[in-house]
């Protein structure tokens, strides 16, 4: 054997843990699916029966959970689709910086400073106004496939 030491630094991510396979025929409305490489929430599913030797096909209409764009896909119901692992975490809002980043308090007491304010105007206004009024705000952060975004806000009262 050689005396060399091997060090492997993994900077690339295969993306395997970001999604899991699920049969297209089992995905329902309000479930999640990956369409064109984007994590989406299914808003409509229709199944069509095809001819004598064809497969039944599922037609998915879904909305990207980060950009709110409408995407569609048609998949044979017996085939597997990628389904994203979607997590929702609540953090307390500590601060909003001038460059559009938020400072959030995690459950273990550390801060999370790598998230931008949401692009949704209504939610953005609610967060800024609530913060300006000195309210205690809790934001819900949705994460899937290596992306994170604030998608909801709760007011837990004045400071």
Automatic annotation (TrEMBL):
Composition-biased stretches (Basic and acidic residues): 1-12
A molecular-function term among this protein's GO annotations: translation initiation factor activity
Source organism, top-level taxon: Eukaryota
PTM characteristics: eIF-5A seems to be the only eukaryotic protein to have a hypusine residue which is a post-translational modification of a lysine by the addition of a butylamino group.
Domain Translation initiation factor 5A C-terminal: residue ranges: 85-154
Key words, A-Z: Hypusine, Initiation factor, Protein biosynthesis
Biological process, per Gene Ontology: positive regulation of translational elongation; positive regulation of translational termination; translational elongation
Annotated spans, Disordered: 1-21
NCBIfam families hit by this protein: eIF_5A
Function text: Translation factor that promotes translation elongation and termination, particularly upon ribosome stalling at specific amino acid sequence contexts. Binds between the exit (E) and peptidyl (P) site of the ribosome and promotes rescue of stalled ribosome: specifically required for efficient translation of polyproline-containing peptides as well as other motifs that stall the ribosome. Acts as a ribosome quality control (RQC) cofactor by joining the RQC complex to facilitate peptidyl transfer during CAT tailing step.
Membership in a protein family: Belongs to the eIF-5A family.
Protein name, entry field: Eukaryotic translation initiation factor 5A
């Amino acid at each position: 054997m050689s005396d060399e030491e091997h060090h492997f630094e993994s900077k690339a991510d295969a993306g395997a843990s970001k999604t899991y396979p699920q049969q297209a025929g089992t995905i329902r409305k309000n479930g999640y699916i990956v369409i064109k490489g984007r994590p989406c929430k299914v808003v409509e599913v229709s199944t069509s029966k095809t001819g004598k030797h064809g497969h039944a096909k599922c037609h998915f209409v879904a909305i990207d959970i980060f950009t709110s764009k409408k995407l569609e896909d048609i998949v044979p119901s017996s085939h597997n689709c990628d389904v994203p692992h979607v997590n929702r975490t609540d953090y307390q809002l500590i601060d909003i910086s001038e460059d559009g980043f938020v400072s959030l308090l995690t459950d273990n007491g550390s801060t999370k400073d790598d998230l931008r304010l949401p692009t949704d105007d209504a939610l953005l206004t609610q967060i800024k106004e609530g913060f300006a009024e000195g309210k205690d705000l809790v934001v819900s952060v949705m994460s899937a496939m290596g992306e994170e975004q604030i998608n909801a806000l709760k007011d837990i009262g004045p400071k």
